[in-house]
Amino acid sequence: MKKHTSIVDKIFSVFKSRSIKERIKISYVIIILLMITPPVITIVSFVVQMGRYDRIITNVSKTNRLNQTVKMEISDEIWDIVAGKKKFDEGRQYDIIDGINESLDDIMQTTEERENRQMLEVAGRAVDTLKRNVDRLGSQIANQSLVSENEEILDEIRGVSALIYDILQDFIVRVIESATITNEHHKRITFVLTVIQIFTVFFVTIFAVFTQRSVTASINNPIKRLENLSKRIAEGDFSVRVKLPQVSELDGLTDNLNIMAVKIQALIAENVREQQNLQKSEMKALQAQITPHFLYNTFDTIVWLAEEKKNDQVIDITRAFSSFFRISLNKGKDFLTVSEEFEHVKSYLTIQKIRYRDILDYEIEYMPEMADCQILKLLLQPLVENALYHGIKNKRGRGLLSVKGWRENNRLCFSVQDNGIGMTQEKLANIMKQISGSADPEDLNNVYGLYNVNKRLELYYDASTKLEITSQYQKGTTVYFSVPEVGFNV
């Protein structure tokens, strides 16, 4: 009684645990064990009983076949020898006796009851007697004994065979009686298991109801307090706090909500700093395009063209110069249309084409239906400038720079391709590492334009929107990126 009470106390002590997960886990384990135990016992019992039945049926079948051998074959074989139809040495009498012994040994291995095994042992000794009589018959025949003497031994052999037959018949009867006892035992076990299963279903139902009420009572009040906490935080009250409910799963959540109220303010401050960094990045992007070197070279080109009285080219480069800065400034707006972005690139390449007319050809192409779509400004021109100065200028002969735009899977896709000097895979890997990391922009030198575009894509769109660069040394480089047609982080 004390042992039973102790087990019950241990079970119910589980539900005083601080962990809801532990309670549910233990409950499931108990329920599963209770539900599978009776079926497992039933299956094991069934397998055991089936094994016993199988052995019983097999032994009965083997014994019946053996009886036919004992009753008919051995007597007929000895009669043929005594009658002179066969010589003793040509007879199968010893093969038949050996077969009887083997069958008895086989049946003995699958017989469990001690009395039945004893009967088989008696039958085995009778077979030994049978063999001795056969040996005597062989000796008499070899000594040319009278037929009457041989017939006497034949009668003895038949008597021993009949005895073996009777023993085996008794064995069959006892085995069948064992099967009846086994069947009754199986019925009792089945009844007991049925009662156990009914009791188990009842107990599991009561246990499940108790578990449900216990777990519900443990989480309802803490959840209500947490709900009130989250509501006040949503309303802007970051000073609110809630005591830990002393439930493992909810302790962490409560602690996190308390910490969240403190961190939200820090996140707001971090967001302000991020926006400031973004503005700095934009200013640096603009400053990168208005470098003194670019201004000096462009103005020198305009002066040179004017001195050469190439007025049409002066007009073209001046218009391109004006359009370039007008679109760069974009009235302070962060976004412009695709057509304006390509116009910005065209203005830049118009200026550079006049300066590098001997080495530069370019083509600009984009789908008309994407012309009015909005994208972040100043994305293509830094890529074009990078392709010109680090790709085409470093190769011999004329270079071709291709700028393209197209729509694909609800995204706006862009590429800047040149057939310049290209890069080795090692250099390309190093550049990708530089522009994808958190390096200081001041240390980026020749890849600052790529870094700036890549960083602004991540800031305004998402972390998956970034530059993809492919290159082959002596063949050229392609820079690709795509942005969603709608949706960005303002």
Descriptive account of the structure:
Residues 1-5 have low confidence and may be disordered. The chain is built from 12 helices and 7 strands. The strands form 2 sheets. A 5-stranded mixed beta sheet has the order 2-4-5-7-6. The chain has helices at residues 2-13, 20-82, 93-109, 114-142, 147-234, 248-289, 292-307, 311-329, 338-355, 380-392, 425-436, 448-460; strands at residues 335-337, 360-366, 374-376, 399-408, 411-418, 468-472, 476-484. The relative contact order is 0.06. It has 490 residues and is an alpha+beta fold. Helices cover 70% and strands 9% of the residues. It starts with a helix and ends in a 6-residue tail after the last strand. Helix 2 (20-82) packs antiparallel against helix 5 (147-234) and helix 8 packs antiparallel against helix 9. A hairpin with a 3-residue loop joins strand 6 (468-472) and strand 7 (476-484). The radius of gyration is 51 Å and the shape is elongated. The longest helix has 88 residues, at 147-234. The chain has 3 domains: 7-213; 248-285; 298-484, 2-Layer Sandwich (Heat Shock Protein 90).
Can you give keywords for this protein?
single chain, 490 residues, alpha+beta, Heat Shock Protein 90, 5-stranded mixed β-sheet, 12 helices, 7 strands, elongated, disordered N terminus, transferase, Bact_2-comp_sensor_kinase, transmembrane helix, HATPase_C_sf, phosphorelay sensor kinase activity
Q: Find the structural class using helix and strand composition.
A: alpha+beta
Average pLDDT for all residues: 79
Q: What is the approximate shape? A: elongated
Widest sheet: strand order?
Answer: 2-4-5-7-6
Summarize the helix and strand pattern as letters: HHHHHHHHEHEEHEEHHEE
Distance between the termini: 73 Å
Share in helix? 55-70%
Number of domains: 3
The unreliable regions are: 1-5
